[in-house]
Design brief:
Helices cover 30% and strands 22% of the residues. By secondary structure, it is of the alpha/beta class. A seven-stranded mixed β-sheet has the order 3-2-1-4-5-12-8, sandwiched between helices.
Length: 275
């Protein structure tokens, strides 16, 4: 199956989910309008102050995280390839009274759409797995960073994406590629008619494709583009229930039951482009 067809299937799904997500309790747009921030995990502490900084959010979806950074003092730009997502992000900016600029572009084409450099490039949870080429992504990140600027990522761990949720008798069964391959992790695609926001609404565009990228591949790609890794943290907790066997802790995060030390669930890194 040609790469363009993989991308087209994913785009159709994301365009359809925007309205579902905008109305869902999972995302909490009403709470956001009332002043709540969607940045409730480790991001604010690990990134530090963004006051007075320019920030580019790659793969921003409908912009709630982007605008949450604006509430913390950043001048924000969000970029996404879904026209429905960009339209919703602009609407959310107006409805919430939080300023932000949102541009439609496929990630690898972004340097042709946006001619600026930024203090911070940010990528949030559930973004990298939709990209087929992690080296191409690293080139885009480096392109947009000012000298002295930094990239910050908080993501699902690549080991998590390699597990199979259809084997409850062996919950840590590795079924899909951990490393990047020429084809998606599951070349036949995933076919789900219910979205992860769990609203109960049935999807029409159900077929999607994603890619694995190992931690070493991601870090090496950034280093090759001139970035210096300040830290890389692997986290034993997860912001969402990725698998039915996960249990929710007193910290309101999801954990591996009994032996959380056996599996990293999320990871984060900060990488600086030295002057």
């Amino acid at each position: 199956m040609p790469m363009d067809e993989f991308k087209a299937a994913n785009l159709a799904m994301w365009d359809e989910t925007v309205d579902i997500h905008y109305r869902s309790d999972f995302y909490g747009v009403e709470r956001f309008r009332a002043g709540w921030s969607s940045l409730e995990l480790v991001e604010p502490d690990e990134m530090g102050s963004v006051e007075g900084k320019t920030l580019l959010h790659l793969q921003c979806h409908f912009g709630m995280d982007t605008l949450s950074w604006a509430r913390k003092g950043a001048t924000v730009t969000g970029l996404d390839y879904s026209p429905a997502a960009i339209e919703a992000a602009r609407r959310l900016s107006v409805e919430s009274g939080v300023p932000g600029r949102f541009l439609e572009s496929e990630l690898y084409d972004a340097p042709n759409v946006l001619d600026e450099k930024f203090d911070i490039v940010y990528t949030g949870i559930g973004a990298l797995c939709w990209l087929p080429d992690i080296r191409g992504w690293a080139k885009v990140v480096s392109h947009f960073l000012k000298p002295g600027g930094f990239l910050y990522i908080l993501e699902g761990h690549p080991m998590l994406w390699a597990l199979d949720d259809d084997t409850p008798e062996d919950p840590m069964h590795v079924a899909w590629p951990y490393f990047e391959t020429d084809q998606p992790q599951n070349p036949a695609g995933w076919d789900n008619d219910e979205d992860y926001a769990q609203t109960g609404e049935k999807m029409k565009n159900t077929r999607t494709y994603n890619w694995g990228h190992g931690i070493g591949e991601i870090v090496t790609a950034l280093i090759e583009e001139g970035l210096r890794i300040e830290f890389l943290h692997e986290h034993k907790t997860c912001a969402w229930q990725a698998f039915p066997w996960m249990v929710k802790g007193d910290d309101d995060m999801w954990h591996v039951p009994n032996h959380p030390e056996r599996l990293p669930l999320m990871w984060s890194t900060r990488a600086v482009k030295d002057a």
